[in-house]
Amino acid sequence: MVVVGAGLSGIGMACHLERERPGTRYAVLEARDEVGGTWSQFRYPGVRSDSDMHTLGYRFRPWTRAETMPGGAEILAYVRETAAEYGVLDRVRPRHRLVAADWDSERARWALRVDHDGTEVELECAFLLMCGGYYRYDGGHRPELPGLGEFSGRVVHPQDWPRDLDHTGKRVVVLGSGATAVTLVPALARDAERVTMVQRSPSYVISLPSADRLAPRLARLLPGDLGHRVVRWRNIAMAMALYQLSQRKPRLMRRVLRKMTVAALPPGYPVDTHFNPSYGPWDQRMCMVPDGDFFAALRSGTAEVVTDTITGFDGDEIQLSSGDTVRADILVTATGFNLGLFGGAELSVDGRPIRTTETMTYLGMMLAGVPNMVYVLGYTNATWTLKLDLVANYLVRLLRHMSDNGYATATPSAPPPGVTEEPFDNLTAGYVRRGLDELPRQGSRLPWRPTMNYVLDTITMRRTPITREMAFGRAGSPDRAWSRPGPPGR
């Protein structure tokens, strides 16, 4: 068995295997040279979670601190400590990037081509677990900016933040309005002369407490991990309530969010210009800021928001469509990332390429017609790790069923007549729209339609019969994995 990716998802999946299927032979392939995924790569100032850590943390190893949105270094330490505690670190093979995987039906094996420091390595496994997330690590999204070559300052992208960049006393322009931008602004404003966030269109920004005082109290008062479970489910319920209310009563939520924003900003601030999105609440992911630090930076005068578009550059001047200009020493293009499903690896079945847009997702974790492959894509409207736990639990059920019945292959069948195709996701975020040509389709009903609802998924994925619209084969063994060259997984 091979797990692809040693970030939050891959480490979590490996820990589930260690906990629930001890003795499983597996290896974890990591393209980079260290464990941690997003949290080891992203080094920009203020990098942190934009999700509640009591739900982002693994269910089997609760986050025990009061911080709700800790910094990237704290999350990285948590992931690595979890990997060490469950003995996963010695399974990780760094600098192993999956290039291609071909399923051999006759042998019931995946044949993998892996790049290891420029040398091609061949691996084989019976089950492939794709846990590398859904964006490309080799570079973020960089839109075409007219006349950028005329800019005399430095241009950086948060995904590739330079270690030698000193913004102290500098004029910084942050281009973008998403979670990364609203994280960067208050962090940069502490030392910069001035920070200007230039956004083409506004986003919803919500202030949340940076610490949960109830969590440590319940941990002390309730036995075992009951206190952590109570906090986790409370936070899940609150997040779901916010999402459902936003979808069902968008006008009401828009008024509520506007009122909260007005209260967080100085009197007379042009809220309707800079914080009035054209889309409904939760049609795109909302930006969560701890203790309103983003709004505090605006109140202090060290940061400002400009809603406009860039038309050109002249030395240190950034020209805007309104005719105004903004002066900058540093331009930060917090313009999002590029989708890269399966880490860009080429997948095929018996030599026939798998085109994800021509496949349909099964329970949001497998692909119709593709044997012995599971992938993890977290929720877009809730915490990523919630979906990981459900996928891992389903996988364990599937492997147990296969072992008990002597099966070696599990393949979601083709959707039956009557199941119509729909887009994979209904969010309008730019990175989703840009990446639609890489995403599989979804069907009009279960199990071909992901719900994007953790509670419904909890019920569905636990109660859906393993045999439902799933074909099984008997050749081989699902728990054997080996590689050549190099030592096998344990």
From TrEMBL:
<dbReference type="InterPro" id="IPR020946">
    <property type="entry name" value="Flavin_mOase-like"/>
</dbReference>
<dbReference type="InterPro" id="IPR036188">
    <property type="entry name" value="FAD/NAD-bd_sf"/>
</dbReference>
<protein>
    <submittedName>
        <fullName>Flavoprotein CzcO associated with the cation diffusion facilitator CzcD</fullName>
    </submittedName>
</protein>
<keyword id="KW-0274">FAD</keyword>
<keyword id="KW-0560">Oxidoreductase</keyword>
<keyword id="KW-0285">Flavoprotein</keyword>
<keyword id="KW-0503">Monooxygenase</keyword>
<comment type="similarity">
    <text>Belongs to the FAD-binding monooxygenase family.</text>
</comment>
<dbReference type="Pfam" id="PF00743">
    <property type="entry name" value="FMO-like"/>
</dbReference>
<dbReference type="Pfam" id="PF13450">
    <property type="entry name" value="NAD_binding_8"/>
</dbReference>
<dbReference type="InterPro" id="IPR051820">
    <property type="entry name" value="FAD-binding_MO"/>
</dbReference>
